[in-house]
Structure of Arabinose ABC transporter permease:
Amino acid sequence: MTLSAGSRVGLAGAAVVGVAFGMARYAYGLTLPGIRRDLELSEPVLGLVAGATFAGYLAGLLLARPLAARRGSRAPTTVGGVCGAGGAVIVTVAQSPWLLAAGAVLAGSAGGWVWAPYSDIVTGTVAPREQPRALAIITTGTSGGLVVLGGLAALAALWSWRLVWCGIGLAAVAAAVVNIRLVPRTSPAPHPDGRRGGASLARTLRVPAAYSVVYFAVVVIYFTYAADVLARGLPAAAVPALYAAIGVIGVVGVATGAVAQRLGSPRVAALCLVTVAAALALLGWDGDSPAATAASACLFGVGYMTGSAVLAVWTAELVPDRAGAAFTGCLVVGAVSSVAAPALAGALIPDLGLGALFVLTAAVSLLGGVALMLPGPSGGGGPPRRPGPHG
């Protein structure tokens, strides 16, 4: 059976995005208890390394578009695969905090390299009628990656946290090979995004950008420290189960475009922040309860995947002629927030404790959601006229 162009690109994109986002980007938090135990690192150092992984993601975001302009949109996705594989291998063998940080940062950069270029690949190589389906398949790759990450964590519980990173390295190599075989080369096409209207674009995106600051900060706190919370009161199997549940439930994110058409993107974004707040609060208050943990994973899966997808939908609605630049701009703002949040959390944990940190983060997320629901300039108006590229 011959696959269509949309199916080939969609499957390759789902594989690469699944490894880069669902695995490499958040594996550090999953393996944090084992890293702390084996390398004997302090909370501030662990928090700084977590923040540095998102600095790598930010670097990938900033470098992907110039590389695509010179070498075509497939080039950044290939670089992302190499970074994911190389970084995972370095973490696997790391015996010092410096080597650990170098590998984690390199692996963390993979997500920045691969996210935005797939929009250009799909629009440039796939027939218009197949584009929504291809983008939907790519979007769900993150959920699949989280499920695989949960499976690796279950196996690692029998041996070592290093098995998780070894598995990510192998998965990154496999995804990169699939990507090269299934995704056609695209011609270099200089992006005109920076030539006009930078100040106007910033004004238009001020509310989605503010949402990005809150959303990415609270999400990274959850992913960085959730495993730590569970490890202190529940069996080891609870951690991989949490990640797998987030991935399975997160598949609902493929419906984001349709929901945003009905409710409006700002309202969907607000609901996502409220949902993530509930997930954080459950772990903060009752992280040693299996029922609370299961409820938290389900809520977070919905809020995380939908919250990510709605940002792409929202920016495309506001700036349809420069959707790529708008989306990337908000991702960059969110990446900066992702760098700062774990470092700040690592400094606060010794005094507050993990439970209080999660409750405080939940309050920030809740306040952000409430602010988006208040009357006033929301940046999105009413329901959109058409779905965005990732909805």
About this structure: The two ends are 28 Å apart (CA to CA).
